[in-house]
Amino acid sequence: MASIFKSSPRAKKYTILYFDHNGKRRKKTGTADKVVTERIAREIENRVALRREGIIDPKAEAYRDHEARPLAEHLDAYAAHLADKGRTRAHISLTVSRARRVVALFRGAPLAEIEAGNSATKELARAADRLMAWTAKARLSDLTVERVQAALATLREKGRSLATCNHHATAISGFAKWCHDTHRLREHPLRGVERFNAEEDRRHDRRTISLEELHRLIQAAELGRRHNRMTGPMRAICYRLAVATGLRFSEIGSITPGSFDWHAQTVTVTAGYTKNGEAATLPLPRDLAHDLAAYVASLPPGEPIFPFPRRGRGAEMLRVDLAAAGIPYRDAAGLVFDFHSLRCETATLADQAGISPRVVQRMMRHSTLELTGRYTRPRAVDIEAAASLLPSLKPSTPGTETAALTGTDSRPLPGPSSVLPATENATDDLAPKRNRLTGKLLPIEGARTQNPVG
């Protein structure tokens, strides 16, 4: 039988203590009214008895309880799950906000109302408040393929790229799958959500630059002014580190003085910050390791070595130095050079140095060689230069060989008995000849040919 009590003289509400259908002791908070709490306790006892007799399915009841909770609570639990897996705060925030945005859109929210118009703190807070308001009444049963597909269509109609739409689809589908895996939903409701072909709407194709331009970029950064909290020399050594290791912007942002092993001349990025979820230890060139050691020596331990801006991406920082170096951010072909292009430089320079594709794949930490090939982006002039380095196949006696290939060689060809023999009075010019390629007899110069038509 359930019992009710107050845990302490100062407690305002009563506590209900009971045993569930499995005989496990449970505790539930009641109300400040003892009579109402006793009524709740009796209701609990009735449900336990029905479960014990098999009249109520405990799983079905658990599904009903999860459905009664706001979807926002499940999203908070999903965020905690991602944190337990070691995901970064930025990754969790981006994933959950995308999932919330999809829910808000299929509930009728205007995109402009739930998205920040700029990066100002006040505007970000306003958009976050509106996003929470639009998703406050949503429930798990609202997650259907049709509604999510409609929300993705809205994103596309509002000018978002197909890649952005796919990122939102991944976020909400990942959340739904987790709800199914944790028995919050009977089945995965978004299994049929279709993604878009992002190749049809490429808006951010990257390019690489020449080695000379890369030197100019780093030199311009070295001599450049402070941008936000990054000085010119900071940016220069940051670019050098990005090209030497192929590390991504967020991975570099996680590096602290303790990430380096100066004896082995390596840098390690923890699993929580890498894309594949595995710790990465990468070697450093000797000159870069020497300069980094001098730079890091004066920095406080445990703090990131580069004070990257809290909002925005590395492209904004890089544009300052690109302009100073006279290198366009977007070229005539529409290809851009942003911070991630420095990672493309890593693969391209390694490929140009003749490093084995398998080794380049390991350097880039790619799962397949095909993916590494996407990062190897030679310029048109590099392809032309490579073509000029191919071995020449020109014949050693060009005049004779060319005439032979075209069938105009005047020398008689030694052939089988089918070749007509020359008479004693015949000259060399009247001797029958064969085309070296086709083997057919050539017409004798000066002789009349019969028109087969008439």
Automatic annotation (TrEMBL):
The keyword NADP does not apply. GO terms for biological process: DNA integration; DNA recombination. The keyword Cytoplasm does not apply. PROSITE patterns: TYR_RECOMBINASE. Gene3D superfamilies: 1.10.150.130, Intergrase catalytic core (1.10.443.10). Residues 204-388 form the Tyr recombinase domain. Residues 391-454 are annotated as: Disordered. One of its GO terms (molecular function) is DNA binding. Residues 394-409 have a biased composition (Polar residues). Keywords: DNA recombination, DNA-binding. Pfam families: Phage_integrase. Belongs to the 'phage' integrase family. This is Site-specific tyrosine recombinase XerC.
